[in-house]
Amino acid sequence: MHKEKLAIKGGKPIRKKILPFVPVEADVTEAEINAIVEVLKTKRLSQLTSEKVSEFEEAFAKYYGTKYAIAVNSGTTALHAALAAAGVGPKNDVILPPYTFMATANAILHQTAVPNFADVDLKTYTLDPEDFEKRITPKTKAVIPVHMLGHPADMDSIMEIAEKHNVIVIEDCAQANGAEYKGIKVGTFGDFGCFSFYLNKHMTTGGEGGMIITNNEKLAKRAKSIVNHCRVDVSPYPNVPAHNVYWGIGYNYRMTALQAAMGIIQLKRLDGFIKKRIKNAEYFDKHSKEFEGIKPPFVSKNVKHVYWAYGALIIEEKLGVSRDKFAEALLSEGIKAEGYCPIPVHLQDVFKNKTGYGGTTFPFENPLYGQPLHYEKGVCPNAEKLSSQDLLLPVYHTLTERELADVVAAVKKVVTNISELKKA
User: Fold this and answer.
1) In whole angstroms, what is the distance from residue 12 CA to residue 68 CA?
2) Whether the Cβ atoms of residue 398 and residue 266 lie closer than 8 Å to each other
3) What is the rounded CA–CA span in Å between residue 141 and residue 164?
4) Domains of the chain
5) Nearest to 69 by CA among 269, 190, 177, 214
């Protein structure tokens, strides 16, 4: 390729309008708009007054082949409600990988339990089963394997270990809606599967939203009650209706009828969204061979990777520049690509400083749990290594052929002129 002056050095950029690595606009058609308008006309917008949420739950359960689905207002609340339904509390720790979004850890803290970090596999970026087993303590109640960037975790090994140690499994499928492990959809292996319908996920319910799935009737009933203030199904009091009786600490995590209406349509389009993402990823794979020092994402033979983003790796020893410098040069060319976890969750300030509720260190340190866990550099070396190497490139289904070509052209331009970038 003919060398061009890098935009970061004053050259002409590949594109003027910045292309983000995840979408900032929803893929909305007339079908979604009409579905929402139809609900608006009924004037019954709440889950408590409309059947639309139940309709969405039934459709989602059918798609995943599970007995139960509970719609909620975010992926975070899905995780929190699942932990609460599982009986997790301040006497417990919950194992999770630090290479994840902060919401995974926040859900554990919301339930006043102690986050217990286990390292990730360097190939798949997902929970390392061997390290997961090493981290189990007598206080471990649950584990949250995260299907990162759309690649499923090693669920056979995780489930075997969890069953051996009587640990509840809550799958974080926020970035993996529709992904499969050995031909089976993620979210159906553990006791719970939790999904996010935030704007930049595979499908959305109007910007926010989430879902919990399970085959366990008892857990489903508890979760469904918890997201509705812990109301009882049947009142034990003759003169008090059920909606005025509460059995425990609950929350208002309900999804609206408007969100559900959009979700029903988006769910019908989900497989098409995924197909396009995979096609886009294959396009990048084909061109990645041209780029020395940029490693394409690994895909296990037994999985269906659904690519929330294209998680490449910048190998500084081969390329000659850091991930951050490379990303800066790409941004100047009009492509926003960045590291997913520049600071792994266990090294975030909230953990380093153990900033708890009301100015205390609770639940990080509490007498019900006992000896506190330590959060410091070196606890999860693989995740810490990934945090300086990963580079997320756009792969979402709404990208045009021109935009895909622009991404490849920008990467190629920076690689071709890497000697100039080294001087920066």
Assistant:
1) 54
2) no
3) 13
4) 30-268 (3.40.640.10)
5) 214
